[in-house]
């Protein structure tokens, strides 16, 4: 496009409008970035807090997170306004179990220090969450449980799948799920409905996935475990108590599990 003479492509009014729109756009982008940063920070706080609270030894759990994020004890102690020896006593269990307020201040200070170092914790949690859930799908209409089990080459250990209709599935890495998903994050694996099959890969004996489901308020209809040749009797008993269908998959790999489920259509 060319312009003749000294005419400007923008009139003063249009130039002012463009400048205003550009300014608004810039503010909008900044706002979105700040909002995303705040959400990631809150996500990190919730993740660490859930892990510490659920741990049998809160002090050791706090220390594990501090060391995982490479924060020196003296640095964190200064941020908390206490001596390094007092902090060491809390982390080692030499002092009584820290209260909720101390844990809250500890985690907030830890994340704040981490932010100044490049936000490792947010990247760490985000990547772990993404890697924990291997595949998730929803069906537009119900699919019979036996059909899903057949696709997974799964043998039923307990429960009656014949009358169960499923509206979705989720495949998760059991090890990464335990470390990366807790509290609210764990509920992400239920997708749009609990009327689904949860498939756990890299399972040892089957106890951990069933324990996690037992303490969760949300329950799937079908649980499929992949990995062990034999399943812990406790896992079978927990599934029976929860009224779940529990099955053991003989699929050759995680990839084949995901491929088979992707091929299931109502």
Major beta sheet summary = 6 strands, mixed
Number of helices: 11
Spatial strand arrangement across the major sheet = 1-3-4-5-6-2
CATH overall fold name of the largest domain: Udp-n-acetylmuramoylalanyl-d-glutamate--2,6- Diaminopimelate Ligase, Chain: A, domain 1
Secondary-structure-based class equals: alpha/beta
SSE order, as H and E? HHHHHHEHEEHEHEHEH
Radius of gyration: 25 Å
- How many domains would you count in the coordinates? 2
Under CATH at level 1, the class of the largest domain stands as Alpha Beta
User: Helix proportion of residues, in percent?
Assistant: 40-55%
In the predicted model, the low-confidence regions spanning at least 5 consecutive residues are 1-37
Which of globular, elongated, flat, extended, rod-shaped describes the shape? elongated
Measured between the Cα atoms of the first and last residue, the distance is 54 Å
CATH superfamily of the largest domain: HprK N-terminal domain-like
E-strand count: 6
How would you state the average pLDDT, rounded? 78
């Amino acid at each position: 496009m060319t312009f003749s003479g000294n005419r400007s492509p923008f009139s003063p009014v249009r130039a002012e409008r463009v400048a205003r729109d550009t300014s608004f756009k810039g503010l909008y982008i900044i706002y979105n970035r700040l909002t995303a940063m705040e959400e990631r920070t809150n996500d990190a706080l919730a993740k660490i807090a859930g892990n510490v609270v659920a741990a049998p030894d809160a002090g050791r759990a706090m220390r594990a997170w501090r060391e995982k994020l490479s924060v020196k004890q003296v640095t964190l102690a200064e941020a908390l306004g206490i001596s390094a020896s007092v902090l060491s006593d809390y982390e080692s269990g030499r002092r009584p179990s820290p209260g909720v307020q101390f844990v809250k201040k500890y985690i907030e200070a830890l994340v704040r220090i981490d932010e100044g170092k490049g936000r490792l914790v947010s990247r760490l949690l985000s990547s772990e969450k993404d890697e924990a859930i291997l595949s998730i799908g929803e069906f537009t209409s119900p699919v019979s449980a036996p059909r899903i089990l057949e696709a997974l080459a799964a043998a039923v250990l307990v429960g009656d799948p014949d009358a169960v209709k499923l509206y979705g599935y989720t495949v998760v890495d059991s090890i990464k799920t335990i470390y990366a998903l807790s509290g609210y994050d764990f509920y992400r694996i239920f997708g749009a409905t609990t009327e689904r099959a949860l498939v756990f890969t890299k399972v040892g004996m089957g106890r951990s996935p069933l324990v996690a489901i037992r303490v969760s308020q949300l329950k799937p209809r079908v649980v499929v475990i992949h990995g062990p040749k034999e399943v812990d009797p406790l896992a079978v008993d927990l599934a029976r108590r929860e009224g779940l269908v529990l099955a053991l998959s003989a699929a050759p790999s995680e990839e084949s599990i995901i491929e088979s489920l992707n091929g299931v259509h109502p």
